[in-house]
Design a protein that fits this description.
This protein is of the alpha+beta class and about 200 residues long. The chain has two domains: about 100 residues, Probable tRNA modification gtpase trme, domain 1 (Gyrase A, domain 2, 2-Layer Sandwich); about 80 residues, Heterotetrameric sarcosine oxidase (Alpha-Beta Plaits, 2-Layer Sandwich), CATH 3.30.70. Helix content is about 30%, strand content about 30%. It is built from five helices and ten strands; from the N terminus they run αββαβββαββαβββα. The strands form two sheets. Strands 1-7-10-9-8 form a five-stranded antiparallel sheet. A five-stranded antiparallel sheet has the order 3-4-5-2-6, covered by helices on one side. A hairpin with a 2-residue loop joins strand 4 and strand 5. The radius of gyration is 17 Å and the shape is globular. About 35% of the residues are buried.
């Protein structure tokens, strides 16, 4: 339990329930307090796009619904729209990342906003993970369509979420607004029980 003056994750009180359902076939956990920055830039400005990628050490994906991860997997850059990306990184890195991106934008056409408090992240991984998501998500998650490096803004259950697949295990990340985190966690717990 957090101290009254410390930040509390949206699913802190769910930790035991999420751990209890996790096993060799599926694992569900919150990955709280991720740094998240919304980046807008002109994709036609190749020099600017190059500077932005260099500033964060990860190239910006230019293919729709694709994500690029750093070599260590600590940072993900998700394509959200033709001129919009979401950069997700380790807790406590938002301020420095924002500063680096602002410096890279310089006088160019672009903007950066820290949206770290806007979503929490869930990890859903293991052999049953895809089947669990398929019960509550309408997009095609077959590996030939949605594999590692794929991302999409979609509904999971009835909660808006950003879905990212980080490995072929499969291992998914779901970014959801804090007000919907408990609902999504409950939905996924029910889906896991149903899939077993």
């Amino acid at each position: 339990m957090s101290h009254p003056n410390e930040a509390q994750s949206p699913l802190e009180r769910w930790e035991a329930r999420l751990a209890a359902v996790s096993g060799s076939d599926v694992r569900l956990a919150e990955i709280p307090f991720q740094a998240q920055l919304d980046l807008r830039a002109d994709p036609a400005d190749a020099d600017l796009i190059g500077r932005l990628g260099a500033a964060i050490g990860v190239d910006l994906p230019t293919i729709p619904n694709r994500a690029v991860s750093s070599a260590d997997g600590a940072r993900h850059v998700l394509w959200l729209g033709p001129d919009e990306w979401l950069i997700v990184g380790a807790p406590g890195t938002a301020a420095q990342t924002e500063e680096d991106l602002r410096a890279a934008v310089g006088a160019g056409r672009g903007g950066v906003v820290d949206v770290s408090a806007n979503r929490t992240m869930l990890s859903l991984a293991g052999p049953l993970a895809r089947g669990v998501l398929e019960t509550s998500c309408s997009i095609d998650l077959h590996p030939r369509v949605f594999g590692p490096g794929s991302c999409a803004q979609t509904l999971v259950g009835r909660a808006g979420a950003i879905l990212l697949q980080v490995s072929s295990e499969p291992d998914y990340r779901l970014l959801v607004r804090p007000s919907f985190a408990g609902y999504l966690a409950a939905w996924l717990l029910d889906a896991i029980e149903g899939a077993r």
